[in-house]
Specification:
Subunit structure: Heterodimer of an alpha and a beta subunit.
CATH class of the largest domain: Alpha Beta
CATH superfamily of the largest domain: HUPs
Number of strands: 14
Number of domains: 2
Strand order of the largest sheet: 7-6-5-8-4-1-2-3-9
CATH architecture of the largest domain: 3-Layer(aba) Sandwich
Oligomer: single chain
CATH topology of the largest domain: Rossmann fold
Protein name: Electron transfer flavoprotein subunit alpha
Function: The electron transfer flavoprotein serves as a specific electron acceptor for other dehydrogenases. It transfers the electrons to the main respiratory chain via ETF-ubiquinone oxidoreductase (ETF dehydrogenase).
Family: Belongs to the ETF alpha-subunit/FixB family.
Pfam families: ETF (PF01012), ETF_alpha (PF00766)
Structural class: alpha/beta
Distance between the termini: 51 Å
Length: 293
């Protein structure tokens, strides 16, 4: 069996290749803008012409798919790659099984209805296409086999870049962090986030947040938002501070090794979903924990 990997980022490619090794005898990876050291048997690099977005590579990806004829396709679950996955599925006359969290004998497990339910699905056709988030497989970078440049196929309707702005990345890489501290609406004002940052410094943790802190008050960048339409994290420890625990948030962290919750509301839903809970005001609890570490 042959597997095709489609990933925009090197770390994701390495994880998907590792996962593909459990399913296929041969693994081919598609990279964008440079051949990732991901351990694939073959890497096909696609150089996107200046002025176009990665989404415009759909026809080129389709051509690579036709040439390789894989039985399974694993796609990084990020915005650009989801567009490519959908276009490829239409081209291959199949469907995409999205946001897979695990593979079982019966099929691929994923969440739906905003994360309140799980289902197991299996492809009915000759090829299966899955989008997979970070942390599903334990990946490790490795040497590639052959590397080749995939010939660009001009799309009929390209997506052009009108303008762009670089978003500066800050803090710990949340996908690789062993410990994540997540702040929620329990923080009454932006200055109180310094307490969460102090705890992060003591633990060597990354600071994340719930959706309202990025889209409601704009205290933190969207790259730190955890939830059904944000990040899906799998740290060893996840510390939710001032987060009520609505399912839309919890699906982004429920695969953590252990979940700790701090909330002054004893009836907060998160206390039914965490491993360890502490009822108290963050103004009292966080400084005390930080001082004790």
């Amino acid at each position: 069996m042959k597997a095709l990997i489609i990933a925009e980022h090197a770390a994701a490619a390495a994880e998907l290749v590792a996962g593909a090794r459990t399913m296929a005898d041969e693994v081919v990876a598609i990279s964008f803008g440079g051949a990732y050291e991901c351990g694939a048997d073959k890497v096909l690099n696609i150089t996107v012409p200046e002025g176009l977005t990665v989404d415009s590579a759909v026809e080129t990806v389709n051509a690579a798919f036709d040439a390789e004829n894989p039985e399974v396709v694993l796609v990084e679950a990020c915005r650009h790659m989801k567009v490519i996955a959908g276009s490829l599925a239409f081209h291959a006359d199949t469907a995409v099984i999205t946001d897979v969290t695990a593979f079982e004998a019966a099929g691929a497990k994923s969440m739906y209805f905003g994360g309140i339910a799980e289902r197991v699905q299996k492809a009915a056709g000759n090829v299966a296409i899955y989008t997979i988030g970070a942390g599903v497989f334990d990946g490790a970078e490795g040497a590639n086999g052959s590397v080749a440049e995939q010939e660009w196929v001009a799309p009929a309707r390209p997506v052009k870049v009108v303008s762009s702005q670089v978003i500066e990345k800050s803090g710990v890489n949340l996908f690789k962090a062993d410990v994540v501290v997540a702040a929620g609406r329990g923080f009454a004002e932006e200055s109180q986030l310094s307490m969460a940052n102090d705890l992060c410094d003591k633990l060597g943790a990354g600071l994340a947040c719930s959706r309202p802190l990025t889209e409601g008050v704009n205290w933190l960048p969207t790259e730190r938002y955890v939830g059904v339409s944000g990040l899906m994290l799998t740290p060893k420890a996840y510390i939710a501070v001032g987060i009520s625990g609505q399912m839309q948030h919890m699906v982004g962290c429920n695969r953590s090794g252990a979940i700790f919750a701090i909330n002054k509301d004893k009836n907060a839903p998160i206390f039914k979903q965490c491993d360890f809970g502490l009822i108290g005001d963050i103004k009292d609890v966080l400084p005390a924990i930080t001082a004790a570490l």
